[in-house]
């Protein structure tokens, strides 16, 4: 006999052997909280939005930024800020729309695709933010070195003393340190999402895709 | 959520709970994990219930939610290795009904099924529940032809596991 046929024969007979969960127990169960990955993805995604948006605010309000505001740079800062908000609103709308689309009654493949799409939105937002930050930092550095009298004096003094190498080395080290912190935070979220939550989903999604090839 | 909705849901689930048990049976390997998955499936069913229109059978609707929870939403399933222990509540074969060889064969068969991946288990589950390929393909989101091909491969795979 085919192996599965043997299993099928017994499959139906097993019904009576499962423990009966009473109506009362079911009432208790539906009061409990879900621990599904969708819930965690939602929470972590909100954290990511809050973190990267908060970081932009923090950088904007820091002493350096205030000092920077005094310089003639409104023509740049205002459009950059507006673009930042518009992009945030756009990504958040996309994220919410995709999240709402996740339904446990879809087919397995569609469900997985919708979860992946939701995650992709957040990933793109973080990616955008990083690029935005790098570009902003470069623009700010350029303006600082170009317009900030104190900095220009420092550079000139360092050059005169023959310390110009040390001066640049310090600057590069500081920038590298800040970048390392960002990279660390980014990797942490990456590990949380793709290492812990989405590993199983990705594996199963690949398996389904393989069937369709 | 009103009381009537809750009442209807609990009554329906109590009646059809074996579907959930059977999914848990395939995707977990001990009682604690079984209960844990049962609980999560129940929560997912309850969350989706207000949108259940009754145009499908409750049981058919349950298959989807239960499998989706096991395959995609449920997180803690790392312990499905070969250490499948046949717990009394899960698998009792009365000695007088079956001979020893069949019992032994069945035990090995369950162990083999546990070695399949999540998607393969889903196919096996729907097959054992006597769902046709149309329903299998719709539940998983693959084509009917591919569901058939995969099912044949699974049968061969089981053969290989059982007769190495």
From TrEMBL, chain A:
- Membrane among keywords: yes
Annotated keywords: Membrane, Transmembrane, Transmembrane helix
Instruction: Give TM regions.
Output: 37-55, 75-96, 125-145, 165-193
Which protein is depicted?
Answer: Beta-carotene 15,15'-monooxygenase
Species of the source: Gelidibacter gilvus
TrEMBL record, chain B:
Which UniProt keywords are present, listed alphabetically?
Sigma factor, Transcription, Transcription regulation
Could you tell me which residue ranges the RNA polymerase sigma-70 region domain spans? 12-80
Q: Which residues form the RNA polymerase sigma factor 70 region 4 type domain?
A: 108-158
Q: Which GO terms describe its biological process?
A: DNA-templated transcription initiation
Q: Which InterPro entries match?
A: RNA_pol_sigma-70-like (IPR039425), RNA_pol_sigma-70_dom (IPR014284), RNA_pol_sigma70_r2 (IPR007627), RNA_pol_sigma70_r4_t2 (IPR013249), RNA_pol_sigma_r2 (IPR013325), RNA_pol_sigma_r3/r4-like (IPR013324), WH-like_DNA-bd_sf (IPR036388)
Q: Which domain of life is it from?
A: Bacteria
Q: Which GO terms describe its molecular function?
A: DNA binding; sigma factor activity
**Which Pfam families does the record cross-reference, listed alphabetically?**
Sigma70_r2 (PF04542), Sigma70_r4_2 (PF08281)
* Classification via PANTHER family: RNA POLYMERASE ECF-TYPE SIGMA FACTO, RNA POLYMERASE ECF-TYPE SIGMA FACTOR
- Assigned protein family: Belongs to the sigma-70 factor family. ECF subfamily.
Protein name, as recorded: Sigma-70 family RNA polymerase sigma factor
The upper taxonomy is: Bacteria, Pseudomonadati, Bacteroidota, Flavobacteriia, Flavobacteriales
